[in-house]
Design a protein that fits this description.
This is SGNH/GDSL hydrolase family protein. InterPro entries: Ester_Hydrolysis_Enzymes, SGNH_hydro, SGNH_hydro_sf. GO terms for molecular function: hydrolase activity. It is a single chain. This protein has about 240 residues and is α/β, with parallel strands linked by helices. It has one domain (about 1-20, about 35-240): 3-Layer(aba) Sandwich (Rossmann fold), CATH 3.40.50.1110. Helices cover about 50% and strands about 15% of the residues. The strands form two sheets. The chain has a five-stranded parallel β-sheet with strand order 4-1-5-6-7, with helices on both faces. Strands 2-3 form a two-stranded antiparallel ribbon.
């Protein structure tokens, strides 16, 4: 069952990646000698796992696993940087009001921060803190739409990711409404989507892979990275001058 779900999510993600190739062609020019990927998001991007009441960032997280997978295929020509910040939302990233210590340009509005970035691909993963901070799905939709449009205007390729599900059924129902907004933005803006929420929810034992009510264990971060790779790798290959 897990294998079928993995294949279904992968096929969907690759379809979005292929659909976005026209946008990449617009900005790519000659093949790149190096591809830089930046990952923006909350604590599940940062890579927090909880154990014995302590929640700390782990070296084994979805972003580091993704870099390992990409470098195993393309070598040091690909680098993935983790700019995840615990407790933050898409609105804060847009406005530059999140953690001001989170990397170069932190504290600047999104458009200014991204304009100074050399990354060709940006991953965007939010939704859980929108639920915890009682934002509306409409507010989340507006913020993610701006993030995507600004990235595209600057010649970047945005990749949207839905959040992993939450074990609490009440919170998860509210998160599903945020997930629907991410899917809507991906469809309207025609950008690649990694639907982690759908993939993880399809796993019969997914709750055992969570370390608390929001954060995966390393094994689930590994599975998330596999889904990310299915979507990001075709974009990387294209930028490096390869073929699909």
């Amino acid at each position: 069952m897990r294998r079928r779900a993995w294949l279904a999510a992968s096929v969907s993600g690759v379809a979005w990646a292929v659909a976005s190739m026209a946008a990449l062609n617009t900005h790519a020019g000659s093949p790149a000698t190096q591809v830089l990927v930046e990952a923006y998001g909350d604590s599940t991007t940062l890579g927090i796992t909880c154990s014995d009441g302590r929640c700390v960032p782990q070296a084994q997280n979805a972003v580091s696993y993704l870099q390992d997978d990409l470098q195993a295929k393309h070598g040091d020509r690909v680098r993935v940087t983790n700019y995840g910040v615990g407790g933050t939302t898409a609105t804060q990233l847009r406005d530059g009001t999140g953690n001001r210590r989170a990397g170069p340009g932190a504290g600047l509005p999104w458009q200014e921060r991204l304009a100074a970035s050399s990354a060709q691909i940006v991953l965007i993963n939010y939704g859980i803190n929108e639920v915890m901070q009682n934002q509306t799905p409409e507010q989340f939709y507006a913020a993610e739409t701006t993030l995507v449009k600004s990235a595209r205007a600057l010649g970047k390729e945005p990749v949207l990711q839905t959040s992993n599900p939450m074990p609490d059924n009440r919170l998860n129902a509210r998160l599903a409404a945020m997930v629907a907004m991410t899917r809507r933005v991906a469809a309207e803006q025609q950008v690649p989507l990694v639907d982690q929420f759908a993939y993880i929810s399809s796993l019969p034992d997914w709750k055992t892979l969570m370390s608390d009510g929001a954060h995966p264990k390393p094994d689930l971060y590994r599975l998330k990275a596999e889904q990310d790779f299915q979507v990001v790798d075709p974009l990387v290959r294209r930028l490096l001058g390869g073929t699909l």
